[in-house]
Specification:
The chain is an alpha/beta fold and about 300 residues long. The protein has 3 domains: about 5-75, Orthogonal Bundle (Arc Repressor Mutant, subunit A), CATH 1.10.10; about 90-160 and about 270-295, Periplasmic binding protein-like II (D-Maltodextrin-Binding Protein, domain 2, 3-Layer(aba) Sandwich); about 165-265, D-Maltodextrin-Binding Protein, domain 2 (3-Layer(aba) Sandwich). The protein contains 10 helices and 13 strands. Pfam families: HTH_1, LysR_substrate.
């Protein structure tokens, strides 16, 4: 077998130099004897010197071979350590984990999982970038993206880790002043607070008993932050459409009151996406598992 990898020839040379045998060198490297010979010949051709004296009975180092071996002293151990480090990043929870996630998920729902993960895995450090945009995972070096309703590229694998229902709500103060909409079309005369990055645009979609209502809303306030829209709604700015993982606590506390509750709105699938590679690092798999477990126990994420 031919090779253009000079290191393969170096390791073959060192194995022969150590054992004074092509056969023993092949066994230690777990390759064929002919491969060892071919790699060393290519190495000698590249260097332009003979490194080994070969005879039918023995193999010995030439003067150049002895000098070359001395110069390579410790390389085998270094290569072994390099392989151990690389393998550990795949099979152990060590190294750096770079994540991108929605700003509305990060502080409340992801940060606590990160804290538990770091306590469990002290050999890992985490970088979390919060953005609503769909990041180029591979190009930007991300290990993992956590999003709602991801448009997954062929080079990525997506795992559903939860779901969150959308709801329409407003503060008691707003409803006392303007009344509650009785039909989705009533929203056209209400002040609506709109998340600017929804994929279906400035239309809110409702369904009831097979009837579909796509309502072009009157936007009073538009923003790309769910938590900002939540604060505006609680302060009485208007009617807001938000997922349960943003609005759920405010609704349960009475700060917001659901409206049009007899109509169904879309459910947002929450997904973890990572590069499509058979050798997914263990640290990535473990973080996704912890996230899925945590989301499954959360009222607003399942």
């Amino acid at each position: 077998m031919k090779t253009t990898d000079p290191l393969a020839g170096v390791m073959a040379f060192l194995a022969v130099a150590e054992s004074s045998s092509f056969t023993k060198a092949a066994e230690s490297l777990d390759i064929g004897r002919a491969t060892v010979g071919a790699q060393i010949r290519m190495l000698e051709e590249r260097l332009g010197v003979r490194l080994l004296q070969r005879s039918t009975r023995a193999v010995s180092l030439t003067e150049a071979g002895k000098a070359y071996r001395e110069a390579l002293n410790g390389l085998t151990d270094q290569v072994g350590e390099a392989e151990r480090v690389a393998t550990s990043l795949q099979t152990e929870n060590v190294g750096r984990l770079k994540i991108t996630a929605s700003p509305d998920l990060g502080p409340i729902h992801i940060a606590p999982v990160i804290a538990r993960y770091l306590n469990e895995n002290p050999g890992v450090s985490i970088e979390l970038q919060l953005s609503n945009g769909i990041a180029d995972l591979i190009g930007n070096g991300y290990d993992l993206a956590i999003r709602g309703a991801l448009a997954v590229e062929p080079t990525l694998i997506a795992r559903k880790i939860g779901a969150s229902a959308l709801s329409v709500s407003a503060s008691p103060d707003y409803l006392a002043r303007y009344g509650a909409p009785m039909d989705p079309k009533d929203l056209m005369v209400h002040a609506c607070l709109h998340f600017s990055e929804v994929r279906w645009g400035r239309v809110w979609r409702f369904e009831k008993n097979g009837e579909i209502a796509n309502v072009p809303i009157r936007i009073a306030f538009e923003n790309n932050s769910g938590s900002t829209l939540l604060a505006a709604a609680v302060a009485g700015a208007g009617i807001v459409l938000l997922p349960a993982f943003v609005a759920g606590p405010a609704i349960r506390d009475g700060a917001l009151v659901p409206v049009l509750a007899d109509w169904t709105l879309p459910i947002i699938p929450l997904q973890a996406a990572y590069p499509a590679n058979r050798n997914i690092a263990r640290k990535v798999r473990r973080f996704v598992e912890m996230l899925a477990q945590d989301f499954a126990s959360h009222l607003d994420l399942r």
